[in-house]
Design a protein that fits this description.
3 helices
């Protein structure tokens, strides 16, 4: 007896549950940063490699944004668009061409 092939539903509850959990985690993370800012760290921090200062709330937002950007890159790779691999390959090609122009040995 063959199993009938069924298309997955457009909306999957397990993925929705994961997204809700991630949103709640971000909300709690930023909320805890806001509480810590009000209670302990009401100043700003000088960011390395920058002339800008940021408070703990802005840093927590930056961490959440970085995690989401990394997640998007992972999902793009899963879909067949290896953006990081393409960028790495392009830089290696550029570096090889630069070494060839300078007359150095290419590793």
């Amino acid at each position: 007896m063959q199993k009938e092939h069924r298309e997955p539903y457009f909306f999957q509850s397990s993925r929705a549950r994961g997204s809700i959990l991630k949103a709640c985690t971000y909300f709690l993370f930023i909320g805890m940063a806001a509480i810590m800012y009000k209670m302990f760290f009401d100043g700003s921090i000088h960011l390395p490699l920058s002339n800008r200062e940021a408070n703990i709330i802005e840093i927590s937002f930056g961490i959440c944004i970085a995690v989401e950007c990394w997640s998007i890159l992972e999902n793009m790779k899963r879909l067949g668009f290896n953006l990081l691999g393409s960028i790495t390959k392009a830089f290696k090609g550029f570096y090889g061409a630069l070494k060839a122009v300078k007359g150095e040995n290419i590793d």
